[in-house]
Amino acid sequence: MEIVTNGFGKTPDGKEATLYTIKNDNGVAAEVTNFGAILVRLYVPQKNGANQDIVLGHDTIEGYYVNGEFFGSTIGPSANRIDNASFEIDGVKYQLAVNDGTNNLHSDDNIGYHKRLWDAKTTDNSVIFSLEDNATMGFPGNKKVQVTYTLTNENELKIDYHVTSDKRTLVNMTNHTYFNLAGHDSGSIEGHKLYLKAFYYTPVYERLIPTGDLVPVEGTLFDFRQMKEIGKDINADDIQLKYGQGYDHNFMIDGYDGTIQKVAEVQEPTTGRKMEVYTDQPAIQFYAGNCIKPQTGKNGASYEKRSGLCLETQNVPDAINQSQFPSAVYGPDREYKTTTIYKFSW
Q1: Domain extents for the chain?
Q2: Which fold has domain 2-190+270-345?
Q3: Contact 243, 208 (CB under 8 A)
Q4: Is 62 a catalytic site residue?
Q5: Residue 335 catalytic?
Q6: Of the residues 58, 106, 176, 249, which is catalytic?
Q7: 253-272 confidence digits (pLDDT tens)
């Protein structure tokens, strides 16, 4: 195992950024940067031995200055959508940026955690990113945040999150990497096959806020309990799919008990690559990349609608405003600590 560091250009305010490459003994390599704690590249072999980068992104730091798709990003302190961009804790109302219709999406476009320069230190096979967030973006509490990327010889990319706050606050972090197991430059992910350990999903209103209901996936287009090709039903005449322009929905993990368990699997038939997802979170957002704007990505690749898919482990979207879902409030008496693992085989 080894970690190599290289310069990654300068942040918009002129500070030097760094790219860290973690390599294991099997040909897997992850490249992460302290700008946004972003996963920039992830090289994974395929059945014939060829190594390919399987995550969408940009070649240079300048590509991440805007990054409207949140390629590879660490999202915090709150991922996904919050209704009316506001919430209450202990009778106090907090107003966030309105950046998605009437919603808040992924905390803040400009000063969210994916736009911060993090401190970093390394171990043999980990990069530990940390920052201090002093009650910015409308979220209460002075927070100390740590995100650790670890690559193992079991071909696991492990992401550990740890947040402490001196005040009760909302925390619901995730990683927003877009995967394409055929290679980041190989076009649509509709031929990938997906399994989700989910008996229920949360339907949404037109503005993509959960209605609060839990609907069984059985007998619906949202049933991924058996491996199913993503493109099979994605364009069906279904109001939920029309709202999301395809799959962009939260699924509830069956048997959730706060321990790490396998919650998803993706298979790509042409390369033989397989990705398993493990987490201790109660939910997972499956986003099929329906709203990727046509653009040029790494190595001149053309990224378009559904060029990558996201499996974002997290709490239920808008849980802060819907008390029937697990609590997303953390503070002096409750640290935020969670783990997600993406495990690869070929």
Answers
A1: 2-190+270-345
A2: Beta-galactosidase; Chain A, domain 5 (2.70.98)
A3: yes
A4: no
A5: no
A6: 176
A7: 999 999 999 999 999 999 99
